[in-house]
Amino acid sequence: MTIEEISEIGSALGVFLLRFRRCFSHKPTFRHFGVYVRGLLSDLPRKSVEPIALAAGSTVRTLQLFLTFHRWDAGAMRDEVQRRIAQDHLPAPGSSERSDPLGVVGWTDETSVAKKGDKTPGVQRQHCGATGKIDNCIVTVHLACRHGDFMALLDSDLFLPEESWNPDRQRCRKAHIPDSVVYRSKWRIALEQVDRSRSNGIRLDWMSFDEWYGGKPGFLLGLDQRGQLFVGEVPRHWACFPTLPRYHSTQAPHAAKRADHAACHGKPFRGKRRKEVRLTRKTLPDQLWHYKAGRVHLSSEGTPTEKDYWLIWARNRDTREDKYFVSNAPPSTAVEILLRVAFTRAGVEHVFRVVKTEIGFDHFEGRSYVGLMRHMTLCQVVFLFLAAHTDRIRKKKSGHHAGASGQSPQHPLPFLDDSPVPTLRI
After folding, report:
1. Whole-angstrom Cα distance, residue 381 to residue 277?
2. 3-class DSSP assignment, residue 66
3. Max intra-chain CA distance, the chain
4. Are 137 and 126 in contact (CB under 8 A)?
5. Does the pTM of the predicted model rise above 0.85?
6. Which domains does the chain have, with CATH numbers?
7. Rounded to an integer, what distance in angstroms lies between the CA atom of residue 172 and that of residue 120?
8. Distance CA 380, CA 82 (A)
9. 283 pLDDT band (50/70/90 cuts)?
10. Whole-number mean pLDDT of the chain?
């Protein structure tokens, strides 16, 4: 980056932070917001309260209080992030400005952070994707989106375990978890996030998700009821009906077929030839997938739905890996488009990687639910700033100059010096 670009982005950060001024009732609290954001943007190896405060020359206790007890509205901040994304980075529905033929794709997914002890809100022994095993960790559910090269983190929620936390309200209160926050299945949290984003102007052309969410009929039907198009992965044992039973009755369940059996032997797939689709990837070799597709009925409590859906079987030519996808897209939709949407989901892993390795998403060390939720929201703010900055630089340059993170060993965030909020001395 040039000195001019660094200076330009320094001013942009100050303007960007001022957009969230209304979330704070007191000016000193807003200044702490600037300090914390700088910490998340910095090259500190650990981006929790203490190292951020020490690097900024601030009092550790003050920044702890900012995160957990000072009065400011993290919900309003999340809403403002979503509104900014909708207004500044996503095309309006039906707009001719859409640069991506797939439109705006949303991703529902979860991530986990390993923790020690039993005080962190929501912590328990459960599957931890970060370690790849059953471990002591917390799980958070997220909604992200992409349009072209732009990606953003839209929403974040803590998954509150049903048995170890939900019934123990005294334990919850010690962790500052309100009585209104109760156990909800992760797929229900995901639907709530879709609803919130819509209320703030986010319009997703597609939703995509992994096989855990695809395996939950309530989630699929919930998206359908909202009129939200989706293409999501389902497990091979996912139940469906390739054809409606001859004697349809709502009084008795029928024998549904597994997705892998339906795609192999089901009537909608018989006699169909395999087709091919080539998927290009930015940093990895292209992939070639063979696929077949047919219309099936979902199984809802053992009973087939009246509406039919796409079921797609795809096999990687080189690895022989099989995947199964379901979609509520109209029958006239090109299956190749559905597959391209489904495989964009790898982008959400990039989002998690950036927020964890560059922004300090998993560096939260407190025992307060309020602090955790605020930390996640502040990470969303920083991610949006970085995404907007990268998008702006990309439009000016091409090739290997297109990406910029705002950090380098030679320039540890000097672009913050000109902004109207306090600067970290790192």
Report:
1. 37
2. helix
3. 75
4. yes
5. yes
6. 1-88+368-426 (no CATH), 100-230+342-365 (3.30.420), 233-327 (no CATH)
7. 10
8. 10
9. confident
10. 89
d(CA 327, CA 208): 9
Q: Per the structure block, which two tokens stand in for 234?
A: 């389902």
Residue 399, judged by CB atoms within 10 A of its CB (0-12, 13-18, 19+), counts as exposed
- Amino acid letter, 100: D
Give the separation between CA 165 and CA 182, rounded to whole angstroms. Answer: 9
DSSP string covering 106-140: EEEEEEEEE--SS-STT-EEEEETTTTEEEEEEEE
Close Cβ partners of 413 (under 8 Å, ≥ 6 residues apart)? 38, 41, 42, 43, 406, 407, 424, 426
Binned at pLDDT 50, 70 and 90, residue 407 comes out as very low
The vertex-191 CA angle with 126 and 376, nearest 5°, equals 60
Higher pLDDT, 318 or 402: 318
Element (H, E) at 295: strand 287-300
- State the DSSP code for 10: H
pLDDT exceeds cutoff 70 at 172: yes
> CA 178, CA 141: separation in Å to the nearest integer?
18
**Lookup: tokens for 366:** 């407190």
Lowest model confidence (mean pLDDT) among 159-163, 207-211, 246-250, 264-268: 246-250
For residue 293, the cross-strand partners are: 312
Structure confidence by residue, pLDDT tens digits, 296-355: 999 988 899 999 999 999 999 999 999 999 999 999 999 999 999 999 999 999 999 999
Q: Please, which residues bridge with residue 232 across strands?
A: 326
Q: What are the DSSP calls for 214-237, one per residue?
A: HT-HHHHHHHHHTT--BEEEE-TT
32 membership: H or E segment, kind and range = helix 27-41
Side-chain-facing half-sphere of 133: CA atoms under 13 Å: 2
Q: How far is CA 125 from the centre of its chain?
A: 23
